[in-house]
Amino acid sequence: MAATASSYSITMRLYTAPDHGVVGAVATQIAACGGVVTAIDVTESRHDRLVVDVTCSASDAGHSEELVAAVAGVEGVTVHKVSDRTFLLHLGGKISVNSKVPLRTRDDLSMAYTPGVGRVSMAIHDNPEDVRKLTIKGNSVAVVTDGSAVLGLGNIGPGAAMPVMEGKAALFKRFADIDAWPICLATQDTDEIVKAVEMIAPGFGGINLEDIAAPRCFEIERRLRESLDIPVFHDDQHGTAIVVLAALTNALRCVEKSLESVRIVVSGAGAAGTAIVTLLLAAGAADVVVVDRFGALSADDDSLSPAHVELAAATNPRRATGSLQEVLVDADVFVGVSAPGILDPEWIPTMADKPVVFALANPDPEVDPAQAGKYAAVVASGRSDYPNQINNVLAFPGVFRGLLDAGAEDVTVDMLLRAAKAIADTVSAEELHPAFIIPSVFHPDVTKRVAAAISGKEG
What we know:
Elements: E1 9-16, H1 21-32, E2 36-45, E3 50-57, H2 61-72, E4 77-84, H3 85-90, H4 106-112, H5 116-126, H6 131-134, E5 140-145, H7 157-176, E6 179-184, H8 190-200, E7 206-209, H9 216-227, E8 232-234, H10 235-254, E9 263-267, H11 271-283, E10 287-292, E11 295-296, H12 306-314, H13 324-328, E12 333-336, E13 356-359, H14 369-372, E14 378-381, H15 396-406, H16 413-426, H17 446-455
Parallel strand pairs: 5-6, 5-7, 7-8, 9-10, 9-12, 12-13, 13-14
Antiparallel strand pairs: 1-3, 1-4, 2-3, 10-11
Helix pairs in contact: 7-15, 8-9, 10-11, 10-16, 15-17, 16-17
């Protein structure tokens, strides 16, 4: 096994014999078991023992346990305790609230709170539009979930979803200086979710729906957009679609093909797949076939669900039928937002010349990116340990920054198209390469370019 992800990084505190050669033996044993040593610190040296902290990365949780067992087997070594660095990072949560104003004196309190705050409240009562200027509303987003479709983990509930929503709030702050709050609802009833969000909406400038299962997420977003005067954005749908379109725009530049002329196969007819297809069509794609676990969606199929009927009607102009393997033949592009391992790399050579493969299922993609790279001209995935990571962080901070700056009340398809173009254009002609079709999430210009595109204030 190969250690590739810091999310499975552990620190072992070891008691060893007073021989620094033991430290080398530990490092050798970890490497022999496929781990990667990232730090070794001798924290205490005595005549009878050494205390050593060894930090290493593994490929998964099971691999971490194997590394610990291997180190424990080194002669002269006792594993005193093991700390999982990811869990340590989450202790006490990842976000906090800090006051933006000093509260040191009675004078400070009289302005920030009573009696001075009453004047501000009445000013908002008399001029409701001032709430964006005089409160945090103008820079705040609610990150709302019911815990029904969390990452690749499924329906794990609102409590278990909290670390993900906290992380989303931290990303809002880091990349767009937006104050976001995790709102994890103890219901999966559509009416109750809509009502709950409507009731908290006065305190926020935007609503980010997150990790809500399809098809419920479609109705929730539609109803909230109709009832609220602030933008509602389901990131699993539209954030993914924006980044996929941006990456595909540049991938097609690499292979010298146009969006209008290529055949595209999308695996996955859920929230992300539906939004990706919708945005691709809006951008000019003419031949898109959607495949679910039963095969290609076609308007000729009377057995489709209501959500899939609409999707089939807008796609598959050739009325292609069959399995994923069958519809991939002569396709130029594969976009997967479905399930691990469903694309055999041996199918890729049956695609058109210079195929593009986006395997975006997380944490395990539809096809191993390294294997896909043997046959495809351009490969992208959702993983950070391979080139061309399709990451929603490229989109949603800038999208909401632009929406809040513009005081927008809605999100339009034209905004999404402009955001995708802004991300794609961040990669210069000199930088563009099959292994570099999308900028890093840490690129200093991404968020501000997307924000300007959303607000219409470019240049």
